[in-house]
Amino acid sequence: MDDTPHQQRPGRHDVVELRVHGVSGARPEQVLGRAHVRQVAGDDSGGFHRAVESEDAEPDGVTLEAYRWGDLPSGTVARTLSLVFLLPFMLSNVAVWMRPTDRRSGAGVTVLCRLLALNLTVVYVVSIGGVALDLLAWRCLGAARCRAPFDTMAGLDGREVGPRLAVLALLPIAAVAFLRLLGTRRPRPAGNPLWAVEPMVGRLRAVHVAAALAVLNLMLLVARTAGGATASTTLLLTLSAAVLPFCAVLLAVPGLLDRAATTRMVTRTASTVGAVAVALSVATLVAVALDERPWPSSEGLPGYDEVVNWVLLTQMTLLVALSGLVLWHQGRGGRRNALPRGLGAAVVAAIAVGLGSAFAANLVYQAGNLLDGYRGDGGPPLPYQWTLLAFFVHVIAGVVLCGGLTLLSRRRRWRAAAAITARDFPAVGPEGAERLRQVTRAVARARFVEWLGLLAITYAALSVIGLATSLLRLTDLAPDQLAWRVLGLPAGAVGMGLALGSYLVAAVLVALILGGVFAYRTAWFRRHVGILWDLGTFWPRAAHPFAPPSYADRAVPELADRITHLTERHDGVLLCGHSHGSVLLALAVLRLPPRVRQRVVLLTYGSPLDRLYARLFPAYLNETVLRAVGDRVEWRWLNLWRDTDPVGGWIFAPHRPGDPPPDPADPAGRVDRRLRDPQGLLPSPGERRPPPVRGHHPGESDPDFRAAMSELARRLRH
């Protein structure tokens, strides 16, 4: 579809106003404020829409067009549900983009994030291997204590231990194949891809598959050698164990995966490692299945607890090292009572590790309860008991910290908000006192984001809880035994904590599944929950190859191509981006050729470019990049923001009453415009309700927005 025939009427529609919505996934009718729209380019996932002929232009002759990209991150409901289980992988991938700007610290953060991502894949395989090998093959089909029909599963109950393990080892292999299949799917790109890291995904995928198969081989071979080793099993065990450090080296050498000069060599090496791991897995399955020697007698799969212990201990060690590195960097140059730049890597990585470990532990825990496979031997493997307990303690500590910080900051936030509303509404009568209090409360809530730095620092420091539990796992004591010996607590108290931790993980998983269903079917749910998924899938896969693919690889080039197309058929294009849409437009502006940039102006509103993105992703969206955007459009850029907005804010200068004026010689000082919100405290004549508090809402119909649009249109024409 194209709008060429529509442009054959000279004198009208000389400027196109291209609106890009935020993460709320608004319909084109809402974005354009028109009842009837038609699609002029794109497809069902991401398309450009205009109003019908009779209502397509504003009174000043500006043609309205909207880009709807809200379906790019989601796709079908089935795909959304499948991606829910990839949430820890997605978060670990986002963490690598939050590295600090310092070259040394940034390189260290990148390496640690990639190693943590690799560890999450290993934890995923170890947990599924625990269900397939330890619970089903060893316990249920061996001791025959599970509920029917699992005690006679597929006729394997009469088989020897080796064939049972070899057959059921296909379950974790299938799980790895499923992840690899999901990781190869990606949205259709438009034009040249935005990011230069996508070719790296194949190398990361080969490394992760190799590590996953290697740790599965180790579980089988450690159990086999517990009853006596042979030359073949010793050789296989040695080679499989060597695969893991080799994979870690490929990720740990700074810049090895990213250097263009070594791309072919690294790609060939990663593929070779993957092929070696596959060959070792085939040999291991054959060796285990055909080995007729007696197996040792034990309650669980021999050596399984030790494998899980060291995997989780490695995970916690990496997380503590990452937290220490970013906290050290923050101590050198961070700012207090503000969202620190570069600290998000540790916080997001801690959440990813916590969720991934909790999901893995709960899978084993609940599977054992379902099959009744842990009856009489003290419950599930000890490492998972400690993991569930650590997750429960971590969540409780996080809730207490959030509540404490909310109360601690309330007085300061309220004092700052009262000063703002007092300047905006200096003379308020008794009839407006309650409304003034409501507006002050809205401003105070919006300012809570400025206190997230303290919460982030404290939450990153809580990673020591996981490290402590990892070390306690090595004592071979159950949590209730240690609590009785050290603290004198009854066993029931710890057991209650384990049960609550398991139920809490199950509740989180159910909430994620329901969120995946409703986030793209219900506008309210989409606006409040889908934002997390849209922001997470914006970044490409630079750490975890099984994370969801980046939709920006299509959205940004598609926007740049459309803007170029419109400048060839119109006098100019007025770009309007709300919230996350302003990020997409800023990146699209950086891709425009010079001849196109001369005929483009930019309006952002409710923009998180500086308030969130420049602080969370300082190495990629910083002041230098934002100034480059201004230079590209020759500073024909206005940014509207409100004090009541908890997401968006100013980019270069706040322009609050009483603030020092910016440097008049700096064009960046003229970009931001603060909007008083609300416009008044009392209802206007003829109205029954006072003006609403807009907050983060778009407000394209507001007079201030239309005035800014008219000003930019005049600057574009003249």
TrEMBL record:
InterPro entries per the record? AB_hydrolase_fold
- What residues form the membrane-spanning segments? 77-97, 109-133, 165-183, 204-223, 235-257, 269-290, 310-330, 342-365, 385-408, 451-472, 492-520
- From which domain of life does this come? Bacteria
Disordered: annotated span: 652-718
Coiled-coil boundaries: none
Keywords on record = Membrane, Transmembrane, Transmembrane helix
Task: Give the protein name, as stated in the record.
Answer: Integral membrane protein
Source organism of this protein record: Micromonospora zamorensis
